Description:
With 390 residues, this protein is an all-alpha fold. It has two domains: 7-251, Rhopdopsin 7-helix transmembrane proteins; 312-389, Homeodomain-like (Arc Repressor Mutant, subunit A, Orthogonal Bundle), CATH 1.10.10. 71% of the residues lie in helices and 0% in strands. The chain has 19 helices and no strands. The protein has helices at residues 7-29, 36-57, 60-63, 66-70, 78-91, 112-122, 128-135, 137-144, 148-172, 180-210, 218-240, 244-251, 261-277, 288-295, 299-310, 314-330, 340-346, 352-363, 367-389. Helix 2 (36-57) runs antiparallel to helix 11 (218-240) and helix 16 (314-330) packs across helix 17. It is elongated and about 105 Å long. The N and C termini lie far apart (118 Å). The mean pLDDT is 78.
Amino acid sequence: MNIALNLIDILLISLAVQGLLLSVILLYHAKNFNSYKWIAGVIFIIAESTIAMELFASNLFWRFPMLGTCIPVLKMALGPMIYFYTRSLVQGNKKLTLKSTLHFLPVLLDCRPQFVFLLYETGILSIPRVTAFYADDRVQNFLFQHSVIFDLPVLISLLAYSIVSYTIVARASKNEGIDTFRRDDLKWLRTFLYLIFALIAILFISVSITALPAWNKPYLYLPAIVMVYYLGMRLLIRQKRMTNEDVIAYNRPQPKSHFAATDAGEYQRGLIALMESEKLYLNPALKVDLVAARLGISEKQLSNLLNQHIGKSFNDFINEYRIQEAMNKLGDHSLRQYTIAAIALDCGFNSIATFQRCFKQFTGITPSAYQNNRFNIATAEHNEVNHESF
């Protein structure tokens, strides 16, 4: 039996072997970047599937049957790997729960040769009834016949997980709080998903026209292995340029964004209008729920709007308006007869101590010092005007 390998086959095998090595390197670096373990898994599965396809196409599987048991083709894990890689980029480092492992349960469909080998080694296959069942033509076709029908679950799984992943990427890309490196990864992941969609479309067309096992076609594996190899190398090169601060920022869990940038701008303008036109900040009992109700959003959405899109906490946002109101009153010479405590209460503060602390936090001086400075400036300007009139 001849071994048939052409130039494209040799190129694919070379890239696949390098892909396997690259996946091991990325897995090692996953101690610093949790998301690397998932992209390492994607590269490993595509590289391993490429090698398995070449072994099958070159007749090596038939010449050395044991290769089929040593090299499990885990294509059913590809979709979940892409999904968990996407989720790790958006949500940060999260432990894989027992429930999450159910995503990989369909991988058992890829392990049919290994299952048969296990039955053979344990002697179960020699039991007469098991032997008769195993020898049935339908069972033999299910276990060993390579057909497009057996690739349909892979296709459906890959398409479903890619669509979900693309949705997550599209939503996360609108989050303005995401760091630069992670945003860059999301951009490349979007490109990779475009490639996946293109390969699925090519496969469907190939199956429809030729009714051949289109998974065993080099034109499907070559762009995939090149893309993931390039992505893996790019991650390693980029990592060397990152400082320790960049690594910490990259691994920090990303805050959930409740608004697109345009929606956030609309609600921000509405919030400012409530403060400037209705002066809600003058209400000493003002709370998050009241402002959220006036805007028509939830408290969590209001907190998200303030923290991510405005960059302030609720208390700081409200107190800035109160302090500005207090500065106007303290600088008004006609209100000189009012005490600082009275002005503080009139501006929405519940206690003079809180007012003193916030005033110094935002202005750098005490309310009394600010009032005296404004009074001295006003007095100097008044004396200068009187001097010029003479």
